[in-house]
Amino acid sequence: MKELFMSAGKFFAAAGSKKSGKGAPTSSSATDLAKAMSGLPVHVVSGVTDLVGQVTDYLKIAEQEQTRRTDIIAKRDVALAAMQHQREIMSEMIRFTFQERAAVLQKQFQALDQALAENRPELVNAALNSMVNVIQSSPFKSVQEMQQALGTKDFVIRLE
Length: 160
Hints:
Elements: H1 2-16, H2 27-37, H3 42-117, H4 121-136, H5 139-150
Helix pairs in contact: 1-2, 1-3, 3-4, 3-5
């Protein structure tokens, strides 16, 4: 019986060392275990065989789950990188949009000042209407359109 436990211990130690990179149980450890079990009652052999099968199944499942965890981590990293990239694009888009609006409004104020200086009510009206149109348009509409476009795989940014 002591020989059975020694052989089983070697077998399970070899099976457990697979995780640490030392390899799977060897055929010699399995042979030693089989030799140690010869002459034992059938229920003992059956129990040890079931135990060996359960340990082997556990090790397979543990390896599969480790692979799944690695896949999940990789997918997480890809998703985080994509979100960071989208954030950078959106931030740049918002910055550009507000710079553009500021420049347009500045030009419209200059046109308004000139129209007032020249006493031209039709130009004052046009400048004010143009300012109102710029102010009423949402700068986030273009950001929303950009976000939707980023979701399509055919999207291309054109710099003009």
